[in-house]
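re the bet — no i am not wrong, look at it urself. input seq straight from the record:
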Amino acid sequence: MLPSVSSVNIHYLLANDTVDDIIWDVVQSKLENLGQMLDGHENTLEVSVSQPRSSPSKQRTIDSFMKRCNNVDNPEHQPNLKHPRN
C-alpha cells in the first residue's frame, strides 16, 4: 500500500440502535490515538445528521427482509417459488 500524498475523505453510514453505535466509538478512539502518534494533533470525527428519505413504494424494506429471514424454518411462510423447466 502506497502512502497517500493528498487528503482522503472517508464517509461512514451509521444507523441508530445497531452495532454501529459500538463501532463508531472504536473508530473515534482509533482516530484520536493515531492522530496523536502521527502528527501530535487529536482530530475528531464529525457526524452530519440527515433526514431519512422515504424509499420508493416498490422497494422492499429491511423489515420485510428480516421477516423473511426469520420465517426460513417455517414452511407456511415460504415464498411460492417457480421451478425451472427440466
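see?? Helices lie at 20-38, 62-70. told u. also The two ends are 50 Å apart (CA to CA). so pay up
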